[in-house]
Amino acid sequence: MARLQTERLHIGYGDRVVVQDLTLAIPDKKITAIIGANGCGKSTLLKALTRIISHRSGSVLLDGRSITQENTRELAKKMAILPQTPDSVTGLSVGELVSYGRFPYQRGFGRLTERDIDIIRWALTETGMLAYQHHPVDALSGGQRQRVWIAMALAQETDIIFLDEPTTYLDLAHQLEVLELLQTLNRTQGRTIVMVLHDVNHAARFADHIIALKNGRIVRAGPSEEVICQEVLKEVFQIDAVVGRDPYTHKPMCVTYQLVKGEDDCAQTI
Predict the structure, then answer these.
(1) For a tag site, which of 63, 214, 218, 231 has the least CB within 10 Å?
(2) What pLDDT, on the 0 to 100 scale, is given for residue 108?
(3) What pLDDT does 14 receive?
(4) Could you give the CA distance from residue 73 to residue 75 in angstroms, rounded to a whole number?
(5) H-type helices in the chain, by residue range?
(6) Residue 265 pLDDT exceeds 70
(7) What domains can be seen in the chain, in order of their start residue?
């Protein structure tokens, strides 16, 4: 079942069409990963789904209603987005940044209510950042900062959270830490998670549903077993891949790959 879907969506910048005639459905209460080569339209699609940018034609529907008809404050109560490169937060404490997630609910002079304070504390607890509430954000590690941004999204109390490459610039341990946190939020709270990922093995491991894009069109969408395969990786990334099984999760895993050299040089799938 999908609360969020697109119908014949076209998105472009100037004379350039980035996403073409795209119809998709985001499974509710699942983790969806969007993968594809650089410039294929992943981030552009995410921005259109969250109304950061406008689409040329077609529609983005949330609960059967076009998001263009939604009041901005009301839409912010339904979906939150963490951009690829969050704005600088020099001088803010962890608690102050997370409190920004309560903006859609504030009235008048924007003072925090007791409920706001309770939600902020809960979001910090869920992300393991309560002990850092009074620490400066810019003094934290990369993984900790991502946790704070996720806490801000939680404080926004939305059912859907969008993330644009949430593991960028993080080392391997912090990448895993952030993705496991998102998976926990999905499993325990039923949050719908939609994220752009560069690493296909991360997508295979953590996503219930994967959308593979090429030139603004869907090559294939479905569970990892259907998307992370030699045929799709070749078409989307122009690589000959050896696909095996992750010994920890038993999900498909790209073991190694090489650039496409010719139709007769393809590696075999294990």
Answers:
(1) 63
(2) 64
(3) 85
(4) 5
(5) 42-49, 72-75, 94-99, 114-126, 142-155, 172-189, 200-206, 224-227, 230-237
(6) no
(7) 1-78+158-234 (3.40.50.300), 89-155 (no CATH)
